[in-house]
Amino acid sequence: MIQAVGLDLVELHRLRGVLERHPSRFLTRHFTPEEVAYCRAQRDPIPSLAARFAAKEAFQKCWPEPHGWRDVWVVRNDDAPHLAWSRSLAQAMAQQNLVAHLSLSHSRDHAAAVVVLERRTD
Questions:
Q1: Which residues contact 37 (CB under 8 A, 6 or more apart)?
Q2: What pLDDT, in 10s, does the model give residues 17-53?
C-alpha cells in the first residue's frame, strides 16, 4: 500500500552556481563520497548531482521527521538507482515495513526525482 509520494525538481543552473561558490562545502555536506565519485565520473557531473539532490528532497517530503543530508543517498545496482539509508533510517523503515521506490530523470535544464514509500504487508 502506498504511504507517501515525494517529488522534487532542481534547476541545473542553480546547482551549478552553488558549486561555483562553495564546491567542497556543498559536496561534503550533501553527498556521500560514493555519490560524489559516481557523479564526477560522468562527462558533466551537474545533472547527476542535481538528480541525487532531488532524490534526497523527494524522500524528505515523504518522511515525517527531519534527517541529515547524508542519512539518505542514491546507489546504483544493476544500472537502476535506489535509495540507501543511515542505520537509524534503515531501522525505522524496517520497523514500519516500508520500502522506497525511486525514479530519477534529467534534461538540459532540470533534474527530477520521485520517491514512493510503500508499506509491505507480506
A1: none
A2: 999 999 899 999 999 999 999 999 999 999 999 999 9
Kindly report the length of the chain.
122
CA distances from 60 to 13, 54, 72, 78, 118 (A): 22, 10, 9, 25, 15
Phi, psi of 80 (to 5 degrees): -110, 125
- Homologous superfamily (CATH) of 2-119 is 4'-phosphopantetheinyl transferase domain (3.90.470.20)
* Residue 15 dihedral angles phi and psi, to the nearest 5°: -65, -40
The neighbour count for residue 119, using CB atoms within 10 Å, is 12
The three-class DSSP label of residue 101 is: strand
Grid coordinates representing 9 are 525538481
Rounded Cα–Cα distance for residues 95 and 75 (Å): 22
Please state, as a whole number, how many other Cβ atoms lie within 10 Å of the Cβ of residue 38.
19
Amino acid identity of residue 17, one-letter, is G
